[in-house]
Design a protein that fits this description.
mainly beta; 12-stranded mixed beta sheet; 10-stranded parallel beta sheet; 253 residues; 1 helix; UDP N-Acetylglucosamine Acyltransferase, domain 1; 29% strand; globular
Length: 253
């Protein structure tokens, strides 16, 4: 059997199961009936609720390490080094996923294999984060969202409740593409309001707002805000029709 390293200051509930070659850091708190796979690293101060499953080689509570010339060092933001990572009850964390220090997952979240959740991200209850998804720093994700395989949620974005993000969606926050100092005061993520949906391989330009129950067709380039209850498509995306009544969120809860 492989050797595990569990800090003496860690507090672990009943029904705990752990694989081989794991590390549990100082002052970690783990609730009841938690199952941890092989090779898992749980960094100092992390808080894990009850009935949580963490699969092989996941890393929980990793500190943010920024490049010397990272824009985050210039425009600031919340300090991701002070707050612990928090995983609430009934969550599942997939193989080789990485959750940074300063992120919070509410009850019943599912984080699939190879996903990354950066610092100062809050994810609401019941939300699914698909395989290979990256949610960058300082994002607010609502409850019961679905963010599917290989989607990219850029820093400083907000997704409200019941948002659907299809595979391969790209969101952006820098209209200057890394050039000129003017960009530092203008970086802005995207906003997708309650029940908004974005089709596969679409790209959303910085600061754009997808209003409630709006739908972006697959492969679209969104250069303007999308009105509530409207279907847009194309490059650039333009209004196509009204979202059918039977597809409105209020008729599907």
């Amino acid at each position: 059997m492989g050797i595990n390293k569990i800090a003496g200051s860690a507090r672990i509930g009943s029904g705990f199961k752990i694989g081989d070659f794991c590390i549990v850091g100082e002052h970690v708190v783990i609730g009841d009936n938690v199952t941890i796979g092989n090779g898992v690293i749980i960094h100092n101060d992390t808080r894990i609720g009850s009935n949580v499953t963490i699969q092989d080689n996941a890393v929980i509570g990793k500190g943010a390490v920024r490049a010397k010339n990272s824009v985050a060092n210039i425009i600031g933001g919340k300090d991701g080094e002070t707050a612990p990572a928090i995983i609430m009850d009934n969550c599942i964390i997939g193989t080789s996923s990485i959750l940074y220090r300063g992120c919070t997952l509410h009850n019943d979240c599912y984080i699939a294999d190879l996903a990354t959740v950066r610092e100062n991200v809050v994810i609401g209850e019941g939300t699914i984060v698909g395989r290979g998804v990256c949610i960058e720093n300082c994002c607010d994700i609502g409850k019961m969202c679905k963010i599917e395989t290989n989607a990219y949620i850029t820093a400083f974005s907000r997704l409200e409740d019941y948002v659907f993000i299809a595979p391969g969606v790209i969101t952006t926050n820098d209209n200057y593409l890394g050039r000129t100092s003017e960009r530092y005061s203008r970086i802005k993520g995207v906003t997708v309001k309650r029940g908004g949906r974005i089709g596969g391989n679409s790209t959303i330009l910085p600061g754009k707002v997808i209003e409630s129950d709006a739908l972006v067709g697959a492969g679209s380039i969104v250069t303007k805000d999308v009105p509530a209850g409207t279907v847009v498509k194309g490059n650039p995306a333009v209004p196509y029709k009204t979202v059918p009544e039977k597809e409105l969120l209020k008729n599907n809860l």
